[in-house]
Design a protein that fits this description.
With about 210 residues, the protein is mainly alpha-helical. It has nine helices and two strands. It has a two-stranded antiparallel ribbon. α1 crosses α2. The radius of gyration is 20 Å and the shape is globular.
Amino acid sequence: MAAPTATIGGMPTASERAPYPVAARQLLRETLFGAARDELQLRAWSEITMADIAKAAGVSRQTLYKEFGSRDEFGQAFVIHEGERFLDAVEAAVHEHLDDPRAAVGAALEVFLRSAGEDPLVRILLSDDGTGGMLPFVTTQGMPVVQWATARLSATIEEGWPEAPPAKARLLAEALVRLAISHITAPGDTPEATAAATGELLGPFIDEALGSS
């Protein structure tokens, strides 16, 4: 096993740091996403232009378009960026129940629904009066988000249950992602009840795919 990489004063050494162009791009994207987040606290997505985001971020509109290409591409990337923190919580819930696949799936769905439902920015993102809100980025135009979330959740499942067939792990991951999106955009019950019902519905497949006894 390789020895841990040294750090100096808790900071990464030169060998650990990302190359400058990569780090600079990451900083630019974080700045742009932060600017969009601030703008969304003030008004709806339908009222925010790329020029508004660029101005709030302190960059030119050309810089913003060069990085993302279009307003829709930026919106999709922003939704995925915000979704990262929810997937972090989902992964943690899965890892806490590796000895019980059904419990892992239920806990993961419950923590996602609860966290997303309580997040003020998610409520803003999903509010849509039909005039250009962000809801389409997870529904009618949501394929990039679905693909990203499915790939990440599938990797988490395969890591937790390495003997699971990859095709079944991906099938389970996509089903959970689509169910989660459906329930977060149109909630019908509490996160606990929804997770329990989903576990009951998918239980036999979970047992087969993940090898629960």
